[in-house]
């Protein structure tokens, strides 16, 4: 248990990204990596299940999936006495602003 507590103090980071990758059906490849400190503890790479046209929409979908995993990780660590706030990192400013500002959701 002490090892988990020591590592968790450095924080949880979820890196998310999507790329077109030349898919003929217009679906993007989604990927995310979840890290505690400098150690990867989870990852996913899959074809996006829905067709989204704008890049911002595609990135927003993967941010949502990354947020779900970050929330699960936060709850998992909370049961072990760790109080952390996960950080989600994306390279798309439009998707980042869309997810941070509820005014855009109208």
Describe the structure.
The termini are far apart. Helix 2 (55-78) crosses helix 3 (93-100). The protein has a single domain, classed as 2-Layer Sandwich (Nucleotidyltransferase, domain 5), CATH 3.30.420. Helices cover 37% and strands 26% of the residues. Strand 2 and strand 3 (39-47) form a beta hairpin. By secondary structure, the chain is α+β, with helices and mostly antiparallel strands. The chain is built from 3 helices and 4 strands; from the N terminus they run αβββαβα. The protein has a 4-stranded mixed sheet with strand order 3-2-1-4, covered by helices on one side.
Summarize the structure.
With 106 residues, the chain is α+β, with helices and mostly antiparallel strands. It is built from 3 helices and 4 strands.
Name its key features.
3 helices, four-stranded mixed β-sheet, about 110 residues, disordered N terminus, Nucleotidyltransferase, domain 5, alpha+beta
Secondary structure blueprint with pairings:
Blueprint: H1 2-8, E1 12-19, E2 29-36, E3 39-47, H2 55-78, E4 87-89, H3 93-100
Parallel strand pairs: 1-4
Antiparallel strand pairs: 1-2, 2-3
Helix pairs in contact: 2-3
Computed structural class: alpha+beta
**Number of helical stretches of at least 4 residues:** 3
Largest sheet: 4 strands, mixed
CATH class: Alpha Beta
Strand order of the largest sheet: 3-2-1-4
Q: Could you say what the CATH architecture is?
A: 2-Layer Sandwich
Order of helices and strands: HEEEHEH
Which stretches are low in confidence, meaning pLDDT under 50 for 5 or more residues running? 1-8
Radius of gyration: 15 Å
CATH homologous superfamily grouping: Ribonuclease H-like superfamily/Ribonuclease H
Number of domains: 1
Amount of helix:
25-40%
Number of strands: 4
Shape: globular
Provide the β-strand percentage band. 25-35%
């Amino acid at each position: 248990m002490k090892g988990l507590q020591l590592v968790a103090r450095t924080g949880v980071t979820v890196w998310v990204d999507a790329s077109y990758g030349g898919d003929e059906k217009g679906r993007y490849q989604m990927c995310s990596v979840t890290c505690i400190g400098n150690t990867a503890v989870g990852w996913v790479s899959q074809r996006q299940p829905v067709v989204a046209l704008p890049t911002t929409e595609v990135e927003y979908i993967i941010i949502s999936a990354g947020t779900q995993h970050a929330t699960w990780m936060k709850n998992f660590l909370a049961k072990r006495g760790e109080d952390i706030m996960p950080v989600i990192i994306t390279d798309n400013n439009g998707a980042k602003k869309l997810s941070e500002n509820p005014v855009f959701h109208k």
